[in-house]
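During the practical work, I worked with a single protein chain and the tokens that describe its fold, as given directly below.
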Amino acid sequence: MALWCCSNGNAPLASLEAHFNLWRIAGDKEFKGNGGVIVRDFLEIGVMLANPLSVEGINIYLPTVVEAADIEDCSPRLAEPSVAQGIFNEPLECTKVPRPARVDLKKNDVLFCRVHEFIKNGGLIDKTQLGISHENGGTIIAVSRNSIESVCSNWRDGERVYFRLRVFLSPENDHFIQVISPTDRNFQTGSEEIEYIDFRFNELRTLPAAIERRIKADEKGRAVPVTLIAFLTAFPINSDLAASSIQWHKNRLLEFKPWSDYVASGVPDGMVVYHWKRECEEGKSLLDFSSFVKLQTRRSGKKTVTIYLLVAFLFGLAGNLVASILVALFAYLYELVK
């Protein structure tokens, strides 16, 4: 995937932090969700801008087709102190500002950042604030200049603004999570399933050629430097982290509260969080980031055992049938020879 934004030439120049959280809640096959809501994995994308008024807009490319109904604004969640503190790992106070709508996060009475609240139209984010287009087999999500100006109302030097979007992934979506099931899983009461995440951010050589050309054209002399890239993944505790291409920054067991209500379907009790990040050197920009994560999960349960018993029964039935046929055949041949 990719994220890029361009400066409009105004001083002071902007910089950005990119945050990506991949929630693998559908990995818990026993979790049914609250109130019958379908359990789906989701990706959250957060962008922290310093000196935001010098930015024209924010562009995000996802390698899969996403509809407007699959995109949510996370700002209402960040109005809850326990959620905001959990996301930023800082002691924060949250204040909702009605006009223009936003959430102010403060640390020790000093503004930490302003969180933009997107305007909704018919239950979806308004097109004047968030553009969605399908290109090259993927989706480009564009945070407009209108959104930036809205959250920057009465802005003061040194203040930062934050945008956070949640993108739901369809069960058939294998662009972010690949699953390898053993071919003999129906012949066992339990099996080891492999899942892997190959997260690649702003690696131009892995992007469609048209997207690569667009990024280069947009950023020509106006690229906003990336100072930090953070990637976090949350998955069920019954999955083991088998391999990671880079050393994680930290990991922890996710508290059930407040995360149980973080998404409409709920979150399984017992999730493990791993966090990777990279910061740039003074005066430089991060160009790309990649992290390969391999998970190993023991799959068992009533359905698996039932399938195994059914297969075993059919094998036994087939064996008895073949044996009966062979006995009858040998008896017939014996009679013929006799």
User: Anything to note?
Assistant: The chain has two domains: 2-300, 301-338.
